């Protein structure tokens, strides 16, 4: 784990001294670790805390040497190729697909398929699009009762358990899966996600303005309930469905309402409910005294990173920490822009080379767990082996 900030000059500072290091190197690493802790604390203590969670927050479920639980782009490519069978190469040639410099890309392929269908409709291309979209949905329906979401649960405890006098944490995610919702259920956090609390659950953007309070009979003033956060799924969810012009939440919709990986994501983000999510994202980034955590986001979607960079340029009170293990070698333009700002002395920005599972243990725990939370954790803990 290493990071780049205005306090580290033009060099990436490591937080862990290599094995066999001398006392000076170990002391420097410890000093860097304390400096990083201070930077993280400043963001978490911001009046308005905004989190943008990308694919990297889900891929942490894939343990080294273990099964591939959460799909990455390479997994989706392999599944689509297997489904297409021996005609896959022919189909790629038919839609004029060429392999990008960074390897095979399912998003580029589906984009080419859509373009080809608009110009020269073909049944086999249409079938490939349908099959690939169904595969993406099925691959993202991996969360069940056996899924280990301890990292997500710990993360919510640290970023969503804030003082009730502060605005609720706003968690934006590009992921279709149900990791954060399920983790919130395990930890008894309340999610405000724009859906009603009646059956069926219907989407209405006005619900984001709602909150939860506890009204005691002997008190005239209600108390805000702790452990509440707002969640915005920018690209949709595997449990959303468009039914008679109304967006419904249902366990297994026949055709989930999601923005599939293709270049038309920008245009699709202007449909409901996605435009609601994006408009609130832009407003959140421009609030004074805001802190932004970007986690496992690859800066591949211009309709998302452009508002981020616009806020970096215009909101002087915005503090932002970008977390991704590939940052030191990244060639993405937004990363380079932030790196240049940091090297020019911008103390608002931090680049942290770490995975989601590496970040969560070192995130400061600013609010102690309540006795009620500790009791629920004891009840959920597995019993002694027999």
What string gives the helices and strands in order?
EEHEHHHHHHEHEEEEEEEEHHEHEHEHH
| Shape summary | globular
- How does the major sheet shape up? 9 strands, mixed
Gyration radius over CA: 22 Å
User: What is the domain total for the residues?
Assistant: 2
Uncertain stretches: none
Under CATH, the homologous superfamily of the largest domain reads: TPP-binding domain
Any key phrases for this structure?
386 residues, alpha/beta, Rossmann fold, 2 domains, 9-stranded mixed beta sheet, globular
Molecular structure report:
The chain is α/β, with parallel strands linked by helices. It has 14 helices and 15 strands. It has 2 domains: 298 residues, Rossmann fold, CATH 3.40.50.1220; 67 residues, no CATH class. It has a 9-stranded mixed beta sheet, sandwiched between helices. β7 and β8 form a beta hairpin. α3 packs across α6, α7 packs across α8 and α7 packs across α13. The protein is globular, with a radius of gyration of 22 Å.
